[in-house]
Every structure is written in C-alpha cells, then in structure tokens.
Amino acid sequence: MKTFCSVWLLLSLVELSPAPPASQEPPLACTGAPDPAPPQPETAEDMASTGDLEPTHYPARRAAQVALHYLNTHHGSPFRVFGLQQVHKASAEDVAAGGRKYKLDFSVTDWGSGSATMNKSSEEFFSNTTDVLNIAGPALRCSADVLFPRTERHSAPEVQLHCEALHQINSTAQEEDAFYQKYISPDSAVSARDIPDSFGNVSEEMQPFWRLARVAASFIMLRESSENTEFNMAKVASVTQQESSGEQLMLEFVVLLHDLPSQVTHKHTHRLWTLMDTEAVCVLTVCVCSAGDRSVEAAGVLVSRQRRQGPADRVAAQMPSRHQTPKLTL
Amino acid sequence: MKRILFLTALFVAGFAKKTFERDQVLRITAKNEAQIFLLKELSEQEHLGLDFWREPVHESLPVDVYVPFHSLQAVRVFLRYNQIQYNVMIMDVQDLLDDEEREMVKYRTIPRSTDDFVYTAYHDLNSIYSFMDMLVAENSNLVSKIVIGQSYENRPLNVLKFSTGANRPGIWFDTGIHSREWVTQASGIWFAKKIVTDYGRDPVLTDILNNYDIFLEIVTNPDGFAYTHSRDRMWRKTRKPNSGSSCVGVDPNRNWDAGFGGGGSSSNPCTETYRGPSAHSEPEVKAIVDFVKSHGKLKAFVSIHSYSQMLLYPYGYTSTPAKDKAELHELAKKAIASLQSLYNTRYTYGSIITTIYQASGGTIDWTYNQGIKYSYTFELRDTGRYGFLLPANQIVPTAEETWLALMAIMEHTRNNPY
Q1: How far apart (Å, rounded) are the C-alpha atoms in residues B146 and B295?
Q2: Cα B350 vs. chain centroid, distance in angstroms?
Q3: A183: part of which helix (H) or strand (E)?
Q4: Whose CB among A13, A270, B102, B332 lies 3.0–4.6 Å from A288's, allowing a Cys bridge?
Q5: Which residues form the signal peptide (chain B) (predicted)?
Q6: Which of A58, A86, A200 faces B356 most closely, judged by CB atoms?
Q7: Using the beta-carbon criterion (under 8 Å), do A45 and B319 form an inter-chain contact?
Q8: Residues B393, A37: C-beta atoms closer than 8 Å
C-alpha cells in the first residue's frame, strides 16, 4: 500500500549548498512580503530560566511546541497533526557548549481525529452534543529533550523525542492511500485559497490539505524556533497542485505563520511533493523557500520518509542512491 | 458571484434542488486563434453539458467554462492534448453554493430584534452597532449607550452601560482591542445579551447589577475591525498613519502609560507591537483612559483578547510581582475552574510576563496601577489550531464558558469591596 510515512530531515544538503552571493538568483521563485523586523529580544531575567520550570509558563511551553513541530515532521500526515495538550513537567539547564537544554514531560492530542465534528452546522452541533470542538483524540504522553543552541547566527533547535504508544494509534494508511489515489489522477488540479477562510471555515475536502500544509510548515517552524518564539500556522493562504510528473504528487503551499511574542505573521511559500512507488518506499520532499535572505538555505531542506516497518527497510537498504544523494527537484 | 446566483435561481426554480458536487469551473487561456477555434468547437459538444460563463472570443480574454463532473475528464484531456492552458477557478461548485447558502441563511433577514440576531456568526461593524442600538431600545431601563470618543477614522467608540441606579461603582469589560481577534467581539455581543437576559432571573448577576454598573466596549478598535473585513483579516493594530513611515497603526495594547517604552514593545512602526509615539497617543486608548479617570470608581477591569486560552493578571512590563498577586492568582484559579466546568476547556493562568511574554505599555498594567485591583486579561480560544480564524460554531461555547469566569470575577469583586 502506498502511504505517507514517517519522516526524517536530511540536513546534509543544506550544508552542501551554502548561501550564494546576494546577486545570485535563488533556484526557486520565492515570493512573499519581506520579513518584518525580528522578534524583540527578551530581558535578562527571562533568559535565566533554569532548573525546574513552571509547566504553564512560556519557557516550558515554547520548548514543548518545538518538540511538537519535530513530532509533526516525523509523524504528521494529511490525516494526522498533533497539538499540545499540556506540559506536565519541565526543567532547563545551560549546557557546556553554549545553549540551553530543556527536559520536558508533556501530552499531545491528534487534531486529525475529531474533524468529523468540525464542520457541523450549529444546529446539528448543539442538538447532539455539548462537546467542545477544540479537543480531539486521546492524549499521548511524550518526553523530549530540546536543545536551543547559542550561535552567532540562528541555528535550529535539536530535539530528541519519545512518545508512548505512538505506533499503537490508529493507522491512517488507508485514508492516505485514498487521498493519494484521488489527487494523483491526471485530471486533478487542486487550487484553493484561504484555508480557513475569515470565518474559520474549512471544507471537508480541504481538511487533509490543511493538515499537510501544517506538517510542511512544521519543518519551517522547527527550524526557525528559538526560546523567543512561539509559532503556529495562522492559515493556508493558498494551495496549488503542480503538474504531477509520473507518480509524484506535487503541491505548492503559501502559508502564514504566526509568532506569539512578536505577534508577527510571516508568509512562507513551500513546495511539497510525494513519490509513492511500487517498492513502497516513499519520498516526501519538502522544498522550503521563504522571503528574505534565508531563501537559498531553505531551498536545501529535503525530507525523506520511509516506511515505519517491514519490507521497505530492506528495500531502502538495497537502494542507497535514493537516500544518500537526496534529489532536489523543482 | 452573479452567475452563481443566476444558476441557483435557474435550477432551483426549474427542478427540485440539484446537486453540483464535483462540478468545476475552469479558466482557460487560449494563446492563439487556433485554440479559440478549438474552444468554440468544444462549446458545440452539447452532450458535455458545458456552460461558458465567458465565451471564447479572443486569445487576450480568459474563457470561463462550467464543467459538470461527468465531462471533466474528457474536457481536461482535450485541453491537455491541444496544449491549451487552464486552471481550476472553482474546484467544487456545490461547496461554493453550500457556503453561500449558509451565508445567505445567516443574513436572510436583517434582525429586527436582539432575539433575531445570529449569535453563532461573525458580523461586521454596522451589524454590531445596530445590535447595540436594538439592545438599548429593547432594554432602555437597563442599558444605555455612551460614546467615549472617536477612533482615528472618526468612528464612534461605543460603550454599553448596564445600570440599575446612580453613583454606583463599576466593572469594565472590553473586547476587540486587537481587531483580528474576532471571537472576542463576537463574545462581547453575546455577553451583552446575556446580561439583559439574566438580570432579574439569575440571582447572582441581579445582585451584582443592583450594586455595580457594568460597562462593555464591544468594538474597542473599530478602524482595525473594519479593516479586517475589507482588506486584511490579520490586521491587529489601530489604523493611524505614522509620520515618517509608510507603515500604519499602533498596537493599542502597548500604548498605555505603564512601563511604556520597555521591553516587549517595539519602537518600529512597521511591527505588530509598535508602541506609538507616546503613551496614550491613540484616540482609542485615550478615550478609555479619560473614561476610567473621570469615572473614578471602577473596581474590576477585564480586557479580552484571543488566542491562547489564558487568564492573566499584571504585570507584563516587569517581573516584580503585583502587590495583590496572591489574591489575583487565587481568583484566577477559581475563575478558570468555573470556565473549565462547562466544556472542559483548559486554560492556564498567571501573570502576563511569566505566562505569555513580556509586554510593556499594556492595558491592565495601567488600570492596576490606577488602583483597579481586579485587572485581568483573557486570551480566549483556541491554542493555535485555528488561532485567530476560530470557526463561528465555537463563538457561543467560547462566550458561555468565558462568561462563567467573568461571573466569578464579578462575584468576588462584589464580595470584596475596597
């Protein structure tokens, strides 16, 4: 069966492609408003949060959100996106190499389940249940180490994550397969704007695209996060299906990312494509470009997803070229 | 849009409700006369059931064609084969009609009373101002409208006053100071209706209103709000131009004279947290400052924002704890417990600076320093899934649960006069 699989991020390509001189055109046409001023740095008092942390306060929560972004890059799909439910315990310590490491104990829920209640009309909704709409799916307990490095230039946080029972949650492989089959058809030319719209509406059909955009945005949010940021995806400004080549489903998303402390909404464009082939090794390539001088660095972000278990692992081992020389196609 | 209405009228008139599921509208760009000719031929294939909203005339003009689902594949194959460029303008006509129906149903009648008003939808400024006038007209013994000033673009800054007697101490609520936080204005409307409904019915609220006035400013930033409807749904600030800059607007929640100019606010007019040229420089803020000072007897002040699901007390500009921190913390805990009891919505609570972020020049820091002890800020639903774009069907649940927290704060204020 063809599926979206778990993901890892290959950062080596980023190192291989250093940022070219400013005069050179980036390989991707990145559009969007120039980045507004960066978030204001916080006071020395804030920087000094070490030791046991109050789980409901922002230092712990921001670190947990970073772990969430990491979780979504690995386990997100058109039918699964995780959100933070609660931080139970947190602590932080400065590390020798410079930087601060957070240890976290937190719970997450799957936003993907519960979509059935999302778009009920108010009449339907209130006649059947007084259930709240913003809690979805059972909670998963996770622990994570999140390291925010202290470098001259911003570098992405490093995350180590473990969630209990992650592989026991209901597989969405069937829905993923159906989704892929539907949109890989040569007739398919998905094109939509404003998801959600001003009134918060997301049509049933667009739900998987929203989630996919959110997963792809998680790569950017993870990379851009620091102790002074707290990112969410505000909306999908547009999704446009690109011409498929062979078995690749290719989508271009323009998303708005909201940072809580600075209250800025950043616009990002990224292209995402999937390849599902008969050997059941799938490659989800996220090519990310954002406005501003980080565009080329972002162009090298490549993600390769591999089946969680079974024959693909053997197959993958037999096909080293697929994974060691990541393909950057446009 | 007219075309859709025409189609709807045509089909609804002619048949029982037809469905347009998976039908699409394609926009075709022919690049030469030969392609125009081909498109004309296509239009003659009656069995396809195509409807050209814009006929093929000339290669400089786009051709819009409504394609029923059963013909979609054939048409696309035809276009691809002939290398005719197109894109999908409307992906699913039925979806669009459903959306439009929903909108039309919501706005089918201009409400003639606040009982007609649709609380489960988002409204524009005119509708909200009409609501206020209706509420006052229907409850003139209880509610009056005060205009505390004008926005930069000269819109009235309207405050509803709920009062059962003269010279009372007061409780203040404001919503919509940041215009993109739409669930807050929508909740404010619901609160207004709730107050008039419950006065005389709910003993706790009745007792509160027999001793305190309630002031409710529903659209605290009307210029920004109008802008979120007309141009930019994500607009946060006021709409006052900044001299020497092409960027517009000041963050009204960084413009207050409490730690003004400190960390957690910006001196750059192009940022979302721009504090303004000076404290109280924004008419929307100055109006409230003047009102608070001249009233002199406000005992609780709650400023409502979204999103994050938090209940916050001072300070935002300094990590020095507020003098009344212990009491404020306990009351927040109680208020949140009430809130959560309804739909199990989880909130966190604490001081602004520890819980959400450092922010200087904020509303409740100023009101607290003026001596209004029970100064709180809410961040309503959700925690980032929809963020500012909270679905309308969450308006009423949000308002209902928040009201329980507000009642807890009001009750405590009533029981602890100072």
Answers
A1: 13
A2: 25
A3: helix A173-184
A4: A270
A5: 1-16
A6: A58
A7: yes
A8: no
